[in-house]
């Protein structure tokens, strides 16, 4: 208790209360989008298209686009990487596919989950879009050099990531439900 007879940590100004309430509403709607991955990604593609059209129309802000590209590449690496890196944990200690029937199956767990990947990507496009309204960020650069450098960086990074996936035998994607070739359930027997 403070000298005024109240808890000093529980007193919030009306501005703080409004900000907290706005954050709760925002979080509520963000949480409601969680199961709708397809619609979330379509929305992100629309935001990305609007950003690209703005940069193309203005013929500037290439340094912002380059920074955005580097950030998105960093997010992609986090999305494709396992939570526990087998290289850092040692090959025998890291997660691996079961090789015997008695081995326990350990699913692939991402370092950056899909929702956080989507949220960070969408936020990055929105921030980059807002930055195009301020001329201080329009640094004159020769954009083909930045594009070539980004492509080289992308190719080298992806080559390293793919070789890491092949070395430790993990695939960061699952396409539907697993199908097993067990016994036939047709009911007909050849006697």
Automatic annotation (TrEMBL):
Protein location: Membrane
Membrane-crossing segments per the record: 38-57, 63-84, 141-158
Membrane topology (UniProt): Multi-pass membrane protein
UniProt cross-references to InterPro entries, sorted A to Z: Rer1
GO cellular component, one term: endoplasmic reticulum
Entry function: Involved in the retrieval of endoplasmic reticulum membrane proteins from the early Golgi compartment.
Name of the protein in its database record: Protein RER1
